[in-house]
Amino acid sequence: MQKQDKIFIAGGTGLVGSAITRSLQQSGYTNLLANYHSRPPQDDSVHWVQLDLTDQAAVQSFFSTHNPEYVFLAAAKVGGILANNTYRADFIYHNLQIQNNIIHQSYEHGVKKLLFLGSTCIYPRDCPQPMKEEYLLTSPLEYTNEPYAMAKIAGIKMCESYNLQYGTNFISVMPTNLYGPGDNFDLETSHVLPALLRKMHLGKCLEQNDWDSLRSDVNARPIGKVDGTASEDAILEALSSNGITSSGSSLTTHNSPLVAVTIWGSGKPMREFLHSEDMAEACVFVMENVDFPDLAKGLQEVRNTHINIGSGQEISIKDLALAIQEVVGFEGKLSFDTSKPDGTPRKLTDASKLHGLGWKHKISLEQGLERFYAWYRWKRVRSEE
User: Which of 227, 252, 320, 380 is the least buried, fewest Cβ under 10 Å from its Cβ?
Assistant: First the structure.
């Protein structure tokens, strides 16, 4: 890519897309194009276009009008284990729509290179660890996220198939569990790390009787239909329904109540986490340095050409919760609801292919959690301005 080439970041306002946009800006790229839904971000260095990526005609019109030369396909409907298992039809339908529209129009309009972002949930539930690219489709998927995983597998195969039939240069990367600025903190649909961080922040507000901060948080990110203007009882009920409970002293006194945060599952599953800034750097690195023929070279049957993006380091959900508790300063009790599903027991990526290409992550989990919580508090203050 040249610094002045027109680059489209599909999903430019999300966790992944916004990180890629920032990484491109920091690398000196000046002709960036990204889509938004309701309101464009306050960043005049990016050409923002309102676009529904599930609308086939709208996506076709967009490509005809703007003719991007490079595409980062970072848009997706995403969520944690509860959302994936509850909205199964939405997750497979919307993700297939987005992928089909953008990949096909990229081919139709001669895009020089496309980077499709998936997820390591594409691998089998009982996949050998660490997970190598070659383990794709070797045994059944984890049931709770099967529809989302199937959509992402379809995206990989679509990129490979267009490359083989039409000679395109479409590359797929599969990041591990991500977190960072722009993350989703909805307690029903978010992933485990941001959900735990917000739960413990709210729990800390409760144990400190800090109702100003509590109301500010709930006002910026309502819990269901409950926002910061609701009564104390309504807010407490909303928190309780999401596993944040208090007992003992009255919240209106100077005494600290006893607060507990409940976490889904046993806490035993092992997970790998990568800061979104590291992920974005890896994506830009691949776009700049890797072409599809490099990945298909020597293969009799061209498959599994996708690239894992991860740290290669893992932590149990219990230890993650304890690490977040320390960063946030929450002093209450952590409990685990074993009636809820754990999901995949272990999910560690083998990132040796990416390492062999010359990229490794820089931000440790400890550093990342500190940055993430600092951003979360800054974002809450900004929402009040």
Answer: 252
